[in-house]
Amino acid sequence: MNKLPLAIALALLAISLTGCAGSTPPSGPSSAAGTIVPSVTPTAPSVSASAVPAASTVSIPTDCSVLIASTPFVDSFGAWPLNDPAVVGTPGAQYSFPAGSITPTPAASGATLAQTLYAATQLRCVWRDPTADITNMAIEVATVDPTVANAYLSSLPGKGYACTSEASGASCQLVSSDPKYNVEVVDTAFLRDDVYIHVSQANVATPGLLAALTAKIWG
Questions:
Q1: pTM for this one?
Q2: Which of 35, 161, 177, 210 could form a disulfide with 172 if both were Cys (CB 3.0 to 4.6 A apart)?
Q3: pLDDT tens figures, 17-44
Q4: pLDDT (tens digit, 9 = 90+) per residue, 85-101?
């Protein structure tokens, strides 16, 4: 089976590349597949601490399976191999960037806003069968400087993303159809308080995913 070498790599690096073949999407709300953010506004809303309920307790899991525990996603993309060593995170894998619980690293001198957010990743979860051509799901979570994240989200409408207020935060999403496999690919960037979530997916419907993720992190 032919693989799409850049499918996850561009997806997980969509923070820096703003798009990918196997987990990033081009613009507009989704049609057939349920997506994370349905509504559209022209610019990315700014997020402040006041947007988060005072009673919220923020906790970023260190285990990918915890993110979707007790949700419908356990039986959807959650049934796929998680951080398979043939796919990500180990020498010889398709993609060598780390997965699972990650120690954030300082952004390099001169890093872009996207690269700065990428360097802050604390949890990276990739659900994908090593034999899959494009079907995959990737979620990244990071604690960030809200000023940097807001500036990044504000740049996304110019790249075709639809942005809206969602789940007490700000979300921008790009949706399109992969030209080779004719499946929907979606890239979502979300900021609430100082927590940044990036989701990239291909050929999988995820209605309610953002609500599930925020409920877990701001439980």
A1: 0.78
A2: 161
A3: 343 333 333 333 333 333 333 333 334 4
A4: 999 998 889 888 999 99
What distance in Å separates the CA atoms of residue 187 and residue 30, rounded to the nearest whole number?
Answer: 11
Q: Which residue ranges make up each domain of the chain?
A: 7-217
Q: Which of these, 7, 19, 13, lies nearest to 156 by C-alpha position?
A: 19
Amino acid found at 176: S
> Rounded CA gap, 45 and 172, in Å?
9
pLDDT at 52 over 70: no
In contact, 125 and 138? CB cutoff 8 Å: yes
